[in-house]
């Protein structure tokens, strides 16, 4: 499923070829900045971004994370709904958890968890770009070597956001949150 347009490039490393996917650059032009964070440490008792609300967002995060810790980005969040994007340092995986993403009563399989392996770059940094709209979430990991695209089913009032760490700390090199205009 593709919700946002993207570019696909071919990369060759050690005689292996693979595709990289990234959102088209025009998406950055389709909105406005809601928050920017530079060089900040986040701990379990200090969640961030909870003052930001939006149903269509472009979120870029670059971070290093303490051994054994997890970092969670919760989008389209309300009292009983949220979609969680989580990086697990111990297993080097990125996941999208839709078990609370809204009305999945039509098909319980619509509320599953999808995950993929994602290693840090050469300097130990994890780069994520998350695009959210009214009915989808797309996660681009690294340079685009990992992409998870999922449908979500939140109510219109589920527009919260939060970034938190579990079991340690993470150094946020940069975080940028932009609202996307879908008109």
UniProtKB/TrEMBL annotation:
Classification via InterPro entries: ConA-like_dom_sf, Glyco_hydro_32_C
Glycosyl hydrolase family 32 C-terminal domain residues: 37-177
Recorded GO molecular functions are: inulinase activity; sucrose alpha-glucosidase activity
Q: What SUPFAM superfamilies would the database entry show?
A: Concanavalin A-like lectins/glucanases
- Gene3D superfamilies referenced in this protein's UniProt entry, alphabetically: Exo-inulinase, domain 1 (2.60.120.560)
Some GO term, biological process aspect, for this entry: which one? sucrose catabolic process
Q: Does the keyword Signal apply?
A: yes
- Protein keywords: Glycosidase, Hydrolase, Signal
Gene Ontology annotations for the cellular component aspect, listed alphabetically: cytoplasm
Q: Which domain of life is it from?
A: Eukaryota
Q: Any keyword Membrane?
A: no
Give the family this protein belongs to, as stated in its UniProt record: Belongs to the glycosyl hydrolase 32 family.
- Protein name per its UniProtKB record: Glycosyl hydrolase family 32 C-terminal domain-containing protein
This protein's species is: Penicillium thymicola
User: What does the record give as the organism's lineage?
Assistant: Eukaryota, Fungi, Dikarya, Ascomycota, Pezizomycotina
């Amino acid at each position: 499923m593709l919700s946002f347009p993207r570019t696909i490039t071919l990369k060759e490393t050690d005689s292996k070829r693979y595709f990289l996917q990234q959102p088209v650059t025009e998406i950055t032009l389709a909105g406005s900045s809601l928050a920017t964070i530079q060089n900040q440490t986040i701990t379990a008792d200090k969640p961030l971004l909870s003052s930001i609300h939006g149903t269509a967002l472009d979120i870029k995060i670059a971070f290093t994370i303490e051994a054994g810790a997890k970092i969670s980005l919760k989008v389209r969040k309300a009292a009983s709904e949220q979609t969680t994007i989580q990086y697990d340092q111990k297993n080097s995986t990125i996941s999208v958890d839709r078990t609370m993403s809204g009305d999945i009563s039509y098909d319980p399989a619509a509320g599953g968890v999808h995950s993929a392996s994602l290693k840090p770059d050469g300097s130990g940094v994890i780069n994520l770009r998350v695009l959210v709209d009214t009915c989808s979430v797309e996660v681009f990991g690294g340079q685009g070597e990992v992409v998870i695209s999922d449908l979500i089913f939140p109510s219109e009032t589920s527009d919260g956001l939060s970034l938190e760490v579990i079991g340690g700390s993470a150094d946020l090199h940069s975080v940028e949150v932009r609202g996307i205009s879908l008109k």
